[in-house]
Amino acid sequence: MLVKKSLSLIFLLAVILPVGLRAGGPWPQPKGKYYLKLSEWWLRYDEHYTGTGQTDPNVTSGVYNTVIYGEFGLTDRLTGVVNFPFLSRNVMNNLRSETTGDIISAGEALTGLGDAEASLRYALSTPGSAYPIAASLTLGLPLGNAKGGEAGNLQTGDGEFNQLLGLSVGHGFQLGKTNAYWSVFSGFNNRTEGFSDEFRYQLEGGLNLVNDKLWVIGRLSGSESFFNGETAANTTNTSIFANNAEFISPGLELSYYLTDRLGISISAAGAVSGKLIAAAPAYSVGVFWDGR
Predict the structure, then answer these.
(1) Is 182 a domain residue?
(2) CA nearest 246: which of 222, 279, 228, 219?
(3) What's this model's pTM, rounded to 2 decimal places?
(4) Is residue 285 part of a domain?
(5) How many CB atoms are located within 10 Å of the residue 156 CB?
(6) What is the CATH number of the domain that holds 99?
């Protein structure tokens, strides 16, 4: 019989999952310019990584987020960023006996707002620098439901206000006749409400193909817990916002410009190792408008 658990790092994956070439990184939006993206992100899984890094089965579960993402150049160095899952649905299927097929526990679902993020990214280097460097502050806004479902383990948010302070550096270059770039991000995530603080990182590289219309982007993202929260040792919560979750996650995105400004994107990412995280890939499709 499957144990009814929903251990996952859905929220962290959703935050770190790509939202487009111009989203994030050390490159600021020019003053008055912007980038908008509407996307659908989903994850469906029946296995999870345990606290020791092993995989265990769980009742089939899924999370589906409809997300609006936006960047706006406040000045040539300062960019405002919003990441808002305005519709989040968390689903747990029926738990059935493996021998009789009878329903042991009925499934549940929760729909509502998700936790949002508001960021400021400041270019420490001069705009147009060959190796741009930027500092960022991201505030995690607890707009979601942290105690949904009969057992309180269906959530669209974690109920805590966090602050992620980050630093990023990158470089754009030519690979033959092909435009390319790389960037590196690292940050410290200060969490509240008894959650452990985290170290976040991301490595990214991209190639511009098909007459500069297609960006092929690869990423390696990760999160490491400091295990310093009040609930680090005594909590039994197995919600989708499990404390002390860790992961290493490769990802791939294809971003195609249909016109000079309008484009579509598809992406996938999943943990190759982790703790308290879903052992399944997450996917995203979206449409974007590049108001450069």
Answers:
(1) yes
(2) 222
(3) 0.90
(4) yes
(5) 26
(6) 2.40.160.40
